[in-house]
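A quick aside before the break. I want you to see a complete sequence-to-structure record at least once, exactly as it would be stored in a machine-readable document. Don't worry about memorizing anything.
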Amino acid sequence: MKKRITFNSPVILAFVFASFVAMIAGYLTLGASNKLLFMTYHSSLANPLTYVRFFTHVLGHAGWSHYIGNMMYILLLGPMLEEKYGSAKILEVILTTALITGLLNYFLFPGVALCGASGVVFAFILLTSFTGFNEGEIPLTVILVAFIFIGQQVYEGVFLQDNVSNLSHIAGGLVGAVIGYNLNKKKSRKY
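That is the input. The structure line, written in tokens, reads:
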């Protein structure tokens, strides 16, 4: 019996491959492509690339370990979520997370450049915790994930100086939680 490789999760695979291309471009251009397209920072609102970067910063990464860490979570959680909710909804989660984290960074941290898919990872983590949600119930797993996740991000934001955007993680987690709640609230009404 022949086995074949399937393209099972088009949005997730496209995201991983686009991030890989951005990573290679960053190395080949000594970071110039990241600054041009794959990180968001406080730049002129008259520059059209400022608006592009609000979305594309999630494709850029600071190095291989940053890229691999994020992509492992995305490849672990993303296909399951894409199968459950559909490609359009997963693309919506990625774009919404990118825009919100990009805008937060632009307006709240004008001296900080932001790149990476960590916000998307945390959106997926919280979205995953809502997969067993029924209207009128709050799964204990959602409460525990939210408590541990937000607690860790607040602790790291206050006590660690590690160049990690904890606000992006929290914002991504909130995007995943809100979308997960709304998607599953609608589905539980059908039954």
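Two observations worth writing down. The chain has one domain: 10-189. The domain at 10-189 is CATH 1.20.1540.10 (Rhomboid-like fold). We'll return to this after the break.
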